[in-house]
Write a structure and sequence with these properties.
This protein is of the alpha+beta class and 242 residues long. The chain folds into two domains: 79 residues, Nucleic acid-binding proteins (OB fold (Dihydrolipoamide Acetyltransferase, E2P), Beta Barrel); 151 residues, Recombination protein O, C-terminal domain (de novo design (two linked rop proteins)), CATH 1.20.1440. 37% of the residues lie in helices and 23% in strands. It is built from seven helices and eight strands. A five-stranded mixed beta barrel has the order 1-2-3-5-4. A three-stranded antiparallel β-sheet has the order 7-6-8. The protein is elongated, with a radius of gyration of 20 Å. The chain starts with a helix and ends with a helix.
């Protein structure tokens, strides 16, 4: 047995986040796997007209992948479609691409996030079955930042001494949290205390909460993205104002 095949991973739950052509007949897949995180895998011959992989290596569909190799790019050995996830269509499809773009830009390679993987899978199911896509995106964004170590402080003021009060208007600063507005407080985004408490409860039914939570999450994500533009977010904004 070769050294590469001794480093084989068998039947790993995974999703394809992105793929691009490699040489004449192959693909490079950027996958999100449950136990190994995000990693690149080469699918040899996947672009051949009669390849069995052509109808299997799809975005947003749960797969079991087996691969070998320990270099930067592993080599796909086999794949099996698990099913159970309806195909995304319309706005839900665009939201799915937005989730993938977030993961591609914010997840380091070979850094496992098993709970985030499970939440991503559940979020795809919600997109396929529910109509409030904006609320689904806010829940995922909040969970993603939490998994990456950037959890939002939504129930207590900056410093942690005082509980958030729903009737007060705060300013939310990236590095600090919710600050009470006074003559010296200029930093951060204005946000009502009720919005922060609603976000803590994953409740986006209030139109003001929906609006302010979108603005807050955009500010926080832009900070952690370091200025990168998310193309799918701009497209969704133009289509549906999510």
């Amino acid at each position: 047995m070769t050294a590469a095949h001794r480093n084989k991973q068998q039947d790993e739950p995974a999703f394809v986040l992105h793929s691009y052509p490699f040489r004449e007949t192959s693909l490079i897949l950027d996958v999100f796997s449950r136990r190994h995180g995000r990693l690149p895998i080469m699918a040899r011959g996947a672009r051949r007209p009669r390849s069995a992989l052509r109808g299997v290596l799809m975005n947003f569909q749960p797969l079991l992948l087996s691969w070998f190799g320990k270099g930067e790019v592993r080599t796909l050995h086999s794949t099996e479609w698990q099913g159970g996830q309806p195909y995304l269509q319309g706005t839900a499809l665009m939201c799915g691409f937005y989730l993938n773009e977030l993961l591609l830009n914010l997840l380091a390679r070979d850094d496992p996030h098993e709970q985030l993987f499970d939440y991503y899978r559940a979020t795809l199911y919600r997109l396929a079955h529910e109509t409030d896509h904006a609320a689904t995106l806010r829940c995922f964004e909040k969970h993603l930042l939490q998994e990456l170590g950037y959890a939002l402080a939504l129930e207590r003021e900056a410093g942690g001494d005082k509980a958030i009060r729903p009737e007060i208007c705060y300013r939310y600063a990236v590095e600090c949290g919710a600050l009470q507005v006074d003559g010296d407080t200029q930093a951060g985004l204005p946000v009502l205390g009720k919005t922060l408490l609603d976000m803590a409860a994953d409740d986006y039914a209030d139109p003001l909460t929906a609006q302010q939570s979108k603005q807050l999450m955009r500010m926080l994500l832009n900070h952690h993205l370091g200025g990168k533009t998310l193309h799918t977010r701009e497209l969704i904004k133009d289509l549906q104002k999510l």
